[in-house]
Amino acid sequence: MTQQMALGSDDNRQYHIALSPGDCAYAILPGDPGRVEEIAGYLENPQFVAEKREYRTYSGTIAGKKVYVTSTGIGGPSAAIALEELYKCGVRTFIRVGTCGGMQPDIMPGDVIIATSAIRAEGTSEEYLPPGYPAAANFAVTSALESAARSLGLTHHVGVVHSKDSFYGQTEPDSMPMAEQLKDRWSAYIRAGCLASEMEAAALFSVGLCRNASVGVVLTAVWNPERHKMGLEQTEYHSNDRAISCAVKAIELLMAAEEPL
After folding, report:
1. Could you read off the pLDDT of 200-249 as tens digits, one per residue?
2. Cα(76)–Cα(117) distance, rounded to whole angstroms?
3. Backbone angles phi and psi of 249, in degrees to 5
4. Is-contact 219 99, C-beta < 8 A?
5. What's the rounded Cα separation, in Å, for the pair 237 and 17?
6. Which of 59, 97, 160, 196 lies at a C-alpha separation of 20 to 30 Å from 185?
7. Beta strands of 33-182 (E only): which ranges?
8. pLDDT tens, 156-178?
9. 94 - beta bridge partners?
10. Phi and psi dihedrals of 175, rounded to 5?
11. How many CB atoms lie within 10 A of CB 38?
């Protein structure tokens, strides 16, 4: 079932994601290829489309309109490639569905995080935006995600998230030569109100701003390292059901808003 594509091929499939331009305007972007089929199950008429490298794609429909579910892999570089090539295929609205670690004490595992912007503590966005320029979410998509979370009765938080390149730089900073700097920055982000840490939002927001695409991010808090440090009770939450439902409902709302009254 895997579709491969050689560099310099005469067909019009994109080199990394192996998709061709079409009539699909919406995409849901998980990081893990293993989550693609699960998310597609929330759509009507789900079907496998393509797979290459970390990029696996299913299609389905919401309210009769085609939606892609494409995995991005881990981190900013591969996520940026996915958005760039999906944009070339005609997609204009993107929602990342992912996981994160909570950073504020009131964020519990299983809570939904809706990102308004992302701290650019990664390298991919430097290829798109100048220093100091914010990696900001699209307002309409973010509003739809918040409305969806509210209508579904989900415990949710809306605000800034932290995007990094090194998972272990954040989770095991004492093992790094940059330990003190890493911990000082982390503490500053918490004091400034940052909600959670993940690895793709800043890159996706940055590409979206440069391509005039609409990008939103909804995340599930798997656990909260700050609660762990404080000795507070928590149980890890590994289901994606809440964030997926939120993303699908948000797309329904965005599609409805496009229909003439």
Report:
1. 999 999 999 999 999 999 999 999 999 989 999 899 999 999 999 999 99
2. 15
3. -65, -40
4. yes
5. 30
6. 97
7. 44-52, 55-62, 65-70, 93-102, 112-121, 135-136, 156-164
8. 999 999 999 999 998 899 999 99
9. 27, 215
10. -85, 0
11. 16
